[in-house]
Amino acid sequence: MTKFKLVSADVIKCLSCGRCTGYCPASRVSDYNIRHILNRVLDGDTSVLTDSLIWLCFICGTCIVKCPQEGLWPPKIIQNLREYALNKGHGAWAVAHLIPAVDNFFKYGAVLKGIFPVSPKAIEEINKLGELTGMKAILEKRKKLVEESKE
Fold this sequence. Notes:
Blueprint: H1 3-11, H2 19-23, H3 25-29, H4 34-42, H5 62-66, H6 74-87, H7 92-96, H8 99-108, H9 120-133, H10 135-150
Helix pairs in contact: 1-4, 1-6, 8-9, 8-10
């Protein structure tokens, strides 16, 4: 089973009531419509992976609170779609601006260098956590994706 089909397995719970979109802050300021995205996933429309709309969700959780269907987590579905899109080589533009901040976090212990002092021991611990959680590997993978997208 492809990862796209796994994402759509969660989507089948959607009742299409529209409460998620009605209360969604991203929907109020953009064309983002989680219900339309979920329907596209249900239809097997993989073009959703190249659509910039999947990057507009704030992952705020308002849709979860407003959804009458227990166990439907649209932000998790969006995160899975984003991850799948990135693994397929789409969306590098959406993560490119985050790379310097995460890089700085591992180098200096803070997103912005010099704001407050961080001890070398703390930076070492941050890097250990980055390795243990796989975050450093993800960072390197994203750097490579962004570089390849520039070619």
